[in-house]
Amino acid sequence: MDMNERDECSSEKNENHLNYHNAGFSSGWQFRNPSVGIVAGDQRGSMEESFNPSLWKLCESDMPAIAKPVPATSRFDDDGWTPPDSSSRGGSFLPGGPAILSPTLSHFPADSAFIKRAARFSCFNAASLGGMATPFGASHLAGAQIHNIDINMAKDASLHDVDPGEAADLGGGGHETADSSSKDLAAKKRRRPAEELEVEQGDPQMAAAAKRESVDTDHKAEQSSSTAKPNGKHAKDASDAPKEDYIHVRARRGQATNSHSLAERVRREKISQRMKLLQELVPGCSKVTGKAVMLDEIINYVQSLQQQVEFLSMKLAAVNPRLDFNIESLLSKDFLQSHGGTSSAIGFSPDVVHPQMHLSQQGLVQAEISGNLNHPNAFRRAVNSMPNAWDEQLQNVMQMAAFSSNSQQPRTQ
Amino acid sequence: MLAFRFLRALTLVHRTTPNSSNAARSRRIQRAAFASMAYSAGPRRAWSRALLCRFHFHRARRRCAGRSRTAGVPRRPSTTGSPADGLRRLVPGGTEMDYCSLLEETADYIRCLSKQVKLMQSIVDSVGPGGR
């Protein structure tokens, strides 16, 4: 099984669709580092089905073997790479490898021997990475690094030519050598495995995540050809973070996913939320659809409210006095209403209010009837005897009402 | 809160301007209504802040010079072709907000306006037909 896979890899260099797919897919996977780190656990199980099951089983069988460096290295001796060379190569990039791996593979064992092995056999990596999650993705990154370091891997040079291009294209590192044509090609090729993936998967979470990742890489690749590449890279990095924050904001299929469009989508959702709120507020707007018509309705409603205020103020200006009793009743009604709603937290019950109100009402009535100056004092006493929990504004208004009643009585009578 | 403020302002208006015309008084009452709305909404809201600024500004200016119009003066021209221009003109402080917060402020403004209208309506109703 091992030999078959590796022979396949070595024979087909550029035209190996599978390898291209895998490489692209793997590089697409490799630097969604935080998200893949999170999602990989879920996806790994389902991905094995989608992608070359035999490969996956091979890899899986390799995984436990990785822990034992000696048997692992011995298995691949016939590839032509001498173990000491590979170990030296592995050693040379090992400091970089785990360092790169550690932020991304927090929950995968960054086994140095495993990395070494994986890096050595980049074609194996490329073939298997498509079906694997981060560890192989990281090893692919390591593999890309190895390419820079060691030219001996001529066998996989062609693959590596493609891979760093894609890696760079996807912001994988410092390899900014891909041109747009290869990028677009890679994007298209990447789309297909992702599509296959999501078609074959029954797991919606996995499919959504894969869609998200693949579409992101797609559009990232496409847009980076139009926008500046560094901007695209930064945008991608920036979009990763908000994607992690707004994990519920999914890049739906066929929608652009760079940071600008994501932010715009969030903004549009906010706007639609607020429009819904407004729809509830404005009466008769529930059947209206469309933003323009809604806006017109809202404008009309606000205008009508303002006109009502003006009209009522005219009426109030005309209907001047007789405010004392009415103020009383109004205050009681509104006060109870407002405090019933708001002061329940304070534990202020309306029952406590009533006796005081009664007292103050009596004071007011007395003040009104007699029209004597002494009675405001009585009223004031009544007002002052109110519990401190009462708003002092209420007391002020009561006093005002008393004053107004006193001042108005000579006028009215 | 709104009720107290407004009623106090109302009684103040009636007490201090017994001889002025109804129109002038109605204007004062209307301003008092908006002021009490803005005070009760608090400084958290952009529209209430804009209203309060306008009132203080107007009061200061009235002392110095003649009256200024009460309509909000847009500080900068609204974006051309924006569908929310009418709304911006209506909501105090609306010319300087982005669309998203404009909608939020509009919602709050509508709530407060409807409360104010209900209050004023209840005052008018309780005064009764025989107001004088």
Automatic annotation (TrEMBL), chain A:
It comes from the Eukaryota. GO terms for cellular component: nucleus. GO terms for molecular function: DNA-binding transcription factor activity; protein dimerization activity. It is found in: Nucleus. Residues 71-95, 162-243 are annotated as: Disordered. Residues 176-187, 210-222, 234-243 have a biased composition (Basic and acidic residues). The keyword ATP-binding does not apply. Residues 255-305 form the BHLH domain. PROSITE patterns: BHLH. Keywords: Nucleus, Transcription, Transcription regulation. Its main location: nucleus. This is BHLH domain-containing protein. It comes from Ensete ventricosum.
Automatic annotation (TrEMBL), chain B:
The keyword Ubl conjugation does not apply. Keywords: Nucleus, Transcription, Transcription regulation. Residues 66-88 are annotated as: Disordered. It is found in: Nucleus. GO terms for biological process: regulation of DNA-templated transcription. One of its GO terms (cellular component) is nucleus. InterPro entries: bHLH_AtIBH1-like (IPR044549), HLH_DNA-bd_sf (IPR036638), IBH1-like (IPR044660), IBH1_N (IPR059002). Belongs to the bHLH protein family. This is IBH1-like N-terminal domain-containing protein.
